[in-house]
Design brief:
The structure holds 2 protein chains of 2 kinds. By secondary structure, chain A is mainly α. Helix content of chain A is about 70%, strand content about 0%. Chain A has 15 helices and 2 strands. In chain A, strand 1 and strand 2 form a beta hairpin. In chain A, helix 4 packs antiparallel against helix 14, helix 5 packs across helix 12 and helix 13 crosses helix 14. Chain A is globular, with a radius of gyration of 21 Å. By secondary structure, chain B is mainly α. Chain B has a domain of about 210 residues. In chain B, about 75% of the residues lie in helices and about 0% in strands. Chain B has 15 helices and 2 strands. In chain B, a hairpin with a 2-residue loop joins strand 1 and strand 2. Chain B starts with a helix and ends with a helix. The chains are: A mainly alpha, B mainly alpha.
Chain lengths: ~350, ~325
Amino acid sequence: MSLAIPDTGAQGRQIPDRLKSPLQRFLVSWELLLLVVAVAVFTLNSFASPYFLDPWNLSDATFNFTEKAMIAFAMGLLIISGEIDLSVASIIALSSTAMGFAVQMGADTPVLVMIGLGTGLLCGGFNGFLVTGLGLPSIVVTIGTMSLFRGISYIVLGDKAYTGYPSDFAFFGQGYVWWVISFEFVLFALLAIVFAVILHKTNFGRAVYVVGNNPVGALFSGIRVPRVKFALFLLTGLMSGVAAICLTSRLGATRPSIAFGWELEIVTMVVLGGVNILGGSGSIPGVVIAAFVMGMVTFGFGLLNVPGIVMSIFIGLLLIAVIALPRIAHRVLAKRKA
Amino acid sequence: MIRSLMKSRETILAGAILVLVLAIATRFPGFVAPSNLANVFNDTAPLIILALGQMVVILTRCIDLSVAANLALTGMVVAMLNMAMPGLPVPVILALAICLGALMGLANGLLVWKLDIPPIVVTLGTMTIYRGIIFVISGGEWINAHEMSDAFKAFPREVVLGLPVLSWIAIAVVIGFIVLVGRTPLGRAFFAVGGNPHAAVYTGINVGLTQCAAYVISGALAGLTGYLWVARYAVAYVDIAGGFELEVVAACVIGGISIAGGIGSVGGALLGALFLGIVKNALPVINISPFWQLAISGSAIIIAVAFNATSNRTKGRVILKKAEHAA
């Protein structure tokens, strides 16, 4: 994917005798920086628009990121393992189309959910098979499946749309659990916890880091690298299916252009969350805070009547800046030391 | 010699294209009429030009996803310029388009070279930024045919020696690339950098600079195509050539250019683009809805890359079978 000249070559990596305390590590962490940014954005927004602090408005704002963040969690794991999936938005489209098709056949809500999740899993499995089974580079494979999956939606739907979802299906995207707390937000929070546990507290999570840092080393230490990667592609597909259910339920209609361009925002969210795009490092709390930052920024701009496409300039700049700034800072610091 | 020719990627692809065209011709003889084939070529010309630019970028282990946005932004700028100053001669517009495109390519290249940011991230970012800028400068308005000067619109369509200028430009670019890639130190540097960056450094090649040069070339061609596109279709708006970058990458992958860098040929990129162009133009002829286009190019990418991987697998002693696979 890129020119990776490992900096661990001849000199070897410095490994400290003991780790710094968790508090010390937190104070110099990317997550803290993000948290500061999040608070700053929140404060700025509340000054910029008098409508921002209204609880219902804030609740609406969460819809800007919950669906994307669900996928971003799985994508984070995938990127940490050294792969990427650019087809997620197209999986949403295909999954939503499959559900819409089922509605025309008279399916009820439980069946729709199964179909949505099933389509996501199938798509993820297909990506996973191409990458791990045939050994193809994930970036090209998922650029291909990105066209293929959305292409199938276009073949099925053309310029038409599916509507007429059952009324209880609307709960996933429009329902509230308690007061202003939406079902989607609860799901987002639960998934954040689940993914944080998977990545940071289980053997599988450890394996994800190892695979991303050194696939050959991982193999020698007994990790089934292809299987880990396949599982991650499945997981990303599944989360795309979940997001498809929420989004379809929220919009109440399926068009082939649904969720167009989301892959970019999801990758941006993951990278903004401090996940190394080359694999090997990153954390779920980082992605969660990044989701809030992006959601708040988009919502704040929306309240100020900034058109969506101008926001996308900001997202593009953000994506480049969050990767460029640490590198520039690192370089400046290194120069000062020398 | 003949055996290696038989096995070569380009021969297989050329054969596939021939079979495809013949299959269409048996049902619809009109498709292979010279005038129609010339039309198909002219229609594919932008894809050919961009695919060649993309090829050198991919050769150096990078990727340029911002080409379509670059094209659209340059197209919008020259269209607005033409609206403001209808008297501006076409050569000046061409030069401006190429320079502007090259500048945007340079921005990509510098980010990759000086800051070492992964190419996919850089160009995903600049892709949205360039598209956004179109909206900002145009205010979301369209520029329509009647707002463009006649000379501006006529240039790519003018017929010279039986072919429109657009086709001739594509042919010139192909010839230019054959020389650039096959006969110049820069062309060899592209392969060296992609084949083995470490070895390239030791042979005195500046890896980052070479990658940056590839981006500038790709950007300049995108700029050139931007003007040609807008002039040919006589309309400029925010979303022109939306998603075209995928088609360009698809053409390269189908043409056998390895996404891992260092492998590829001008002929491959050309044939890959022609393949997609023929499919696109044949769909309406054989009465298939154009909505199939996206799925077909997606499948073509997957099949081509799978095919590449199996045919490029080098035979050698495998010490640890799965380790190679995992890496």
